[in-house]
Write a structure and sequence with these properties.
Elements: H1 7-21, E1 26-29, E2 33-36, H2 38-49, H3 53-62, E3 64-67, E4 75-80, E5 87-94, H4 103-114, E6 118-122, H5 125-145
Parallel strand pairs: 5-6
Antiparallel strand pairs: 1-4, 2-3, 4-5
Helix pairs in contact: 2-3
Length: about 150
């Protein structure tokens, strides 16, 4: 696979690669942020059409919709650990170029790892996949030895 040229490209590579490498894995893109709900957009359009621009702006400023949890990774999923139908939660935080890990992301990572999940911070497909593999192996050994 070609090296990623953007964070979105790297995310797409992981979404393709993880299920191909780890049989039975299920992964999805997770967005976190704020936006404006469709009902608010429609109300704003009606207000602007009625000449009530100031009211429309006030409505936009007080009605954002939050989605996701601060610190959630870019990719989430479930990875099976073996034939015993045992799987663990997987998180992949994509960092591209000079992107830095925020405190909320560090806290989310610590929570997942403390609960026995897998969480990697990936700056390349190769490094991220190697880190996932290493954490899966550690989980398998813990299941066998523990």
């Amino acid at each position: 696979m070609k090296p990623a040229t953007t964070a979105n490209n790297l995310t797409a590579q992981f979404l393709i690669e993880i299920p191909q490498v780890f049989a039975g894995a299920r992964v999805w893109r997770r967005n976190v942020g704020r936006g404006i709900g469709w009902d608010t957009v429609q109300a704003v359009v009606r207000l602007i059409a009625a000449g009530q621009v100031k009211t429309a702006i006030e409505l936009l400023q007080r009605r954002p919709v939050a989605f996701g949890v601060a610190g959630e990774p870019d990719i989430e999923g479930i990875i099976p650990l073996g034939d015993r139908r045992l799987g663990v939660w997987l998180g992949v935080e994509i960092k591209f170029g000079v992107d830095k890990v925020r405190e909320s992301q560090q806290n989310f990572r610590a929570m997942i790892l403390a609960a026995g999940g897998i969480h990697v911070i990936a700056r390349s497909l190769e490094q991220g996949m190697a880190d996932i593999s290493a954490q899966i192996e550690a989980q398998r050994h813990e299941q066998i030895d523990g």
